Amino acid sequence: xxxxxxxxxxxxxxxxxRMGADTRILDIAESGPLRVRLPRGPAGPCEAVLLNSAGxxxxxxxxxxxxxxxxxxxxxxxxxxxxxxxRSDGPGTVIETTAAxxxxxHLAFLPQETILFDGVSLRRSLTVDLAGDAGLLAFEAVTFxxxxxxxRIRDGRFHDHWRIRCDGRLAYADSVRxxxxxxxxxxxxxxxxxxxxxxxxxxxxxxxEGRLETxxxxxxxxxxxxxxxxxxxxxxxxxxxxxGADPAALRALAQAVLVGYRGVPLPRVWQA
Length: 272
What we know:
The chain is mainly β. The protein is 12% helix and 49% strand. The protein has helices spanning 182-187, 212-221, 247-262; strands at 9-19, 22-31, 34-37, 46-52, 62-69, 74-79, 83-85, 93-101, 106-110, 114-116, 121-130, 135-144, 156-166, 169-180, 197-204, 227-234, 237-244. The termini are far apart.
């Protein structure tokens, strides 16, 4: 049996609302090693930065983030740095993010990449409920193994589930399930084409489907060797998939695309 260890239970709840031209914090709660920092910025959307004071996520840890964005408010939610998920000796790790965005509100969910160690066991989910003409731009990247060490995931579990609803109706569903020899699975052309990193960008907001050619132009202009990316749009939303043998090149392309598509700089923690 695996040894008994103290597990982390990190939780953050954040509620924001619009006041005049600005978005202000209405409610905030933190527990465990998970914290949220609120850098001062110009008027407009509020920027919130998630901080894991434990310095990484171990097996059996559970991290939960819940966000509520009020009518007409805007929130950018990111992380201080890449998050490391260590190997498991039995128990799994859980990361859950839920958000509710009221009519006219907008959430940009832009965490930095997650680095999975060999032996990882992670179940991650993103659940968002959008009301009326609310919008969501979500981006998440995953690196499989520590590249500097030449590490590959010979045995691990990575389950990732996205569910986005508009006015209660399912608008977007995406599930990834990789078990066992993940490195071997990623060598297959139908799965990863020998990728070491992958990422997904989803825009579910008014006008997103009509921006497909803009996104494709950004992908072409920012193309990097060793990184493949493609965009598609349907049912009012836009999706981009990234696969890369070089995680740093994938990150560079994603940064260029996000800046060009949003028309504003990324949060300062991305540029550190």
